[in-house]
């Protein structure tokens, strides 16, 4: 049995490809939204819900998995660390899939930073609306640092993400609830629509739509802060 830690576009194709090749495969996702996307490609067993180290051990043992493929998001560092520890404890082989990055911080209008705190400090140098394309997990930190009234956020169209925005005081008129990745023209239109002064995003790689965001911002003369 192969266990695929999913939650990304690549993971959906990895799970489906292994299944098509005749391997017994099970996959995990942290949220129901990810499970629905995975089910469109994959017919095997799906475990839905967050898993800590002990939860992973139980899942691996329960499935009788002899191989774990970690194809989670580049920024999902906690699940990757938990998987490494769980597999080491059980003596199960672990393979990590790494998506190709862009390394776009070396040119143009892009400043690369090492984390959320540094991104906040960099964004404070600009006035006007800050477009956050970093997901919902760090919204609280950005709202505390920059002020919720300055933020335009692009999040998944889930009740969890929308409730968090509401709790933080981010008005509906400044929420873009859409499933990505997005084309350059759509990014360009959104940046124009909200009169964006600076874009903050993650180094989500080629398949995460980073190039399209950077290109749209460059066309409009908008500086970009990329969390590496």
Q: Which structural class do the helices and strands define?
A: alpha/beta
Number of strands: 11
Helix proportion of residues, in percent?
Answer: 40-55%
Beta-strand percent range: 15-25%
Described by the principal axes of the CA atoms, the overall outline is elongated
Query: Uncertain spans, ≥5 residues at pLDDT below 50?
Result: none
The end-to-end span amounts to 34 Å
What order do the helices and strands follow?
EHEHEHEHEEHEHEHEHEHE
Biggest pleated-sheet summary: 6 strands, parallel
What number is the mean pLDDT?
Answer: 90
Strand order of the largest sheet: 6-11-10-7-8-9
Number of helices: 9
Radius of gyration based on Cα positions:
19 Å
Oligomer: single chain
């Amino acid at each position: 049995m192969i266990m695929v830690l999913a939650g990304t576009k690549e993971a959906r194709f990895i799970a489906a490809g292994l299944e098509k090749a005749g391997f017994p495969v099970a996959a995990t996702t942290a949220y129901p939204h990810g499970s629905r996307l995975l089910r469109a490609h994959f017919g095997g067993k799906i475990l839905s819900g967050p898993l800590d180290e002990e939860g992973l051990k139980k899942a691996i043992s329960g499935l009788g998995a002899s191989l774990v493929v970690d194809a989670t998001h580049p920024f999902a560092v906690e699940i990757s660390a938990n998987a490494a520890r769980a597999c080491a404890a059980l003596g199960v082989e672990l393979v990590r899939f790494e998506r190709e990055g862009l390394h776009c911080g070396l040119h143009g209008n892009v400043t690369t930073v090492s984390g959320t705190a540094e991104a906040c400090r960099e964004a404070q140098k600009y006035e006007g609306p800050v477009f956050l394309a970093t997901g919902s997990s760090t919204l609280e930190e950005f709202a505390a640092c920059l002020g919720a009234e300055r933020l335009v956020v692009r999040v998944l169209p889930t009740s969890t993400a929308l409730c968090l925005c509401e709790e933080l005081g981010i008005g509906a008129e400044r929420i873009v609830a859409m499933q990505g990745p997005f084309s350059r023209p759509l990014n360009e239109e959104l940046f124009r629509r909200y009169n964006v002064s600076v874009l903050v995003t993650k180094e989500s790689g080629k398949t995460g739509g980073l190039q399209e965001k950077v290109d749209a911002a460059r066309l409009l003369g908008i500086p970009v802060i990329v969390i590496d």
